[in-house]
Amino acid sequence: METNDERGTLSYSMVCCQADNCTADLTDARRYHRRHKVCEFHAKAPVVIVAGLQQRFCQQCSKFHELPEFDDSKRSCRQRLAGHNQRRRRIPSEVQGEGSN
């Protein structure tokens, strides 16, 4: 991970996956995986142990949530899916009226 020290120079520290017992070095991983500290395998896994709890990585929140927050095998938590579906169901007149005062 890139960080600035007091002198403004860049220094690098090893970034590891948040999953328990994962030894994946994210130094050469995609920027997304480094930013969220999750390896590609655990980002897509249906069940991951994080902090001793069974969790899944939410692709909308970019965070781990406990399994009951997901429907079936979905990769987005119920809360984010509800907001997404609500936005999709708006009728066109509601969308046009927003932002115009």
Structural notes for this entry:
The chain is globular, with a radius of gyration of 18 Å. The protein is α+β, with helices and mostly antiparallel strands and 101 residues long. It has 4 helices and 5 strands, in the order ββααβββαα. A hairpin with a 4-residue loop joins strand 4 (53-58) and strand 5.
The shape is: globular
Largest sheet: 3 strands, antiparallel
Q: How large is the radius of gyration?
A: 18 Å
In percent terms, what proportion of residues is strand?
A: 15-25%
Total beta-strand segments = 5
Elements, N to C (H/E): EEHHEEEHH
Q: Helix amount, in percent?
A: 25-40%
Derived from helix and strand composition plus strand pairing, the structural class reads alpha+beta
Adjacency order of strands in the biggest sheet: 3-4-5
N-to-C CA distance: 44 Å
**Stretches with pLDDT under 50, minimum 5 residues:** none
Keyphrases for this structure?
101 residues, 4 helices, 19% strand, two-stranded antiparallel sheet
Blueprint of the fold:
Blueprint: E1 2-4, E2 10-12, H1 31-36, H2 40-44, E3 48-50, E4 53-58, E5 63-66, H3 78-89, H4 92-97
Antiparallel strand pairs: 1-2, 3-4, 4-5
